[in-house]
Design a protein that fits this description.
single chain; about 280 residues; Rossmann fold; globular; 10 helices
Length: about 280
């Protein structure tokens, strides 16, 4: 008798595109890795869709864990409109997670995704077992509100050099950073079928303003975060200043902090060979 069980997919490039409707929103998502146990839900960055996760990091975690990535409301293949605050985005994430029938998750987050993840944990602390915060900062963090100017300037620079904006936003513009940036952008192209829809300009603008509001608002009480937490960044993050990673580390008791040298906002992508196994071990232990 042959088994009808589907083979386990551990390559993000081959993860099937799925959707689930919760209330008035249909959320697009992908899942991979062995099912069973607590899944790892990935919270993505500004302007990003399902296609913006580095497969080297996702695949390393999916070797042993059930991984779920998703499009926020109004982004990519998810329906609805982008919320005007990150608190509302956290509420949307909670709606998506509970629609899947999950009552306990681990979180892997990057940049804006880390901000949304913090809001989610503060509001629903019992939902999350472990937390990975990369390239991010706390609510009310100094100079987070300057992300708008930095982003538009780097987009302008990318246009005149015919490059991907992430090469400027995520990486230093030295020889090492340029090489790492181009390699990262190429990895994002490895999925060749069922690509996600890009974010609209309107949705992108709404997200930027939401981050600006987050940066200008009163700090959250991060002392409620008692989960094991891994914090990582590059030492020269121009989008979410690296000092804010140290701030998170001080405010989240028992957290671990990794700062990679000679790297920017995308330090975890530049140093994926070092970071991916560390993140996978942290989430597995």
């Amino acid at each position: 008798m042959t088994s009808s069980q589907e083979p386990v997919i551990t390559s993000y490039a081959k993860a099937p595109a799925k959707s689930i409707t919760a209330g008035e929103v249909t959320f697009a998502y992908r899942e991979l890795g062995p099912k069973g146990g607590i899944p790892v839900v990935f919270f993505v960055h500004l302007a990003a869709t399902l296609d913006n996760w580095d497969p080297r990091i996702v695949d390393a975690i999916a070797k042993t864990r059930h991984v779920i990535t998703f499009d926020q409301r109004g982004v990519g293949a998810s329906s609805g409109t982008v919320p005007h605050t990150l608190e509302a985005a956290a509420d949307d994430a909670y709606t998506f997670i509970t629609a899947l029938g999950l009552d306990k998750i681990d979180i892997f987050s990057f940049s804006m995704g880390g901000m949304i993840a913090q809001d989610l944990v503060v509001k629903h602390p019992d939902l999350v077992r472990k937390l990975v915060l990369t390239g991010t900062g706390p609510r009310g963090g100094r100079n987070i509100d300057k992300v708008v100017g930095v982003t538009y300037w780097d987009i302008f620079r990318s246009v005149i050099t015919r490059s991907d904006p992430k090469e400027f936003l995520f990486f230093n513009r030295d020889k090492v950073g340029k090489k790492a940036g181009k390699a990262f952008v190429e990895r994002l192209k490895e999925r060749t079928v069922d690509r996600d829809a890009p974010i609209s300009n309107k949705a992108f603008g709404t997200q930027l303003k939401a981050i600006q509001r987050y940066g200008r608002s009163a700090p959250s009480h991060l002392s409620v975060i008692t989960q094991p937490t891994l914090i990582a960044n590059g030492d020269n993050d121009r989008m979410v200043p690296s000092i804010l990673s140290a701030d998170l580390h001080q405010r989240i008791k028992g957290s671990e902090l990794i700062i990679y040298p000679n790297s920017g906002h995308g330090g975890i992508f530049q140093y994926w060979e070092k970071f991916a196994p560390v993140a996978a071990k942290f989430l597995t232990d």
